[in-house]
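Reopening this one. Same input as before:
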Amino acid sequence: ALWSVLRLCAAALRTQFAESRRSATVSNTKHVDAAGQSESYAAGVAAFKRALRPVIAVSAMINILMLTGSIYMLQVYDRVLSSGSVPTLVGLFIIVIVLFAFLGFFDFLRARRLSRCSAILDVSAGSKLFETWISRTGRGPSQHPPLSDLDTVRSFLTGQGITALLDLPWT
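Same output, byte for byte:
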């Protein structure tokens, strides 16, 4: 599901770049090289994919750590209630506190990394989309500014939607 959403975003960016190949100009006399644009787009997508791989790994660790509460309760019912051992309860409680601290830290890392992924996407595609939009406004009013699409993708990457998609295989 995550890859299909990313493919849709990539397809939207490809169409924006394909349209820019047909109509964008760098200056009044020079045309933008189509091969140069596809190379910069491919480099941007490759950088985005490299930045997304650690996010997927951290999401896997987060979802494993989400089992901490359930495992804690199982251990309390199995070990503490049957024996009445307070030191076992304290030991389990300390372990759970440490694991929940790691859960919060990994969640923070995932949010930061997703923010960086959106920044990488913005840097790799934003300038080309802006040049396309500017070149189109000289010929007439632009009905749909491509930067709003990029902003939508960036807000999706930094919002709760992508984290829900990353957590989906674990639910």
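So the earlier flakiness isn't reproducible anymore. For the record, The two ends are 13 Å apart (CA to CA).
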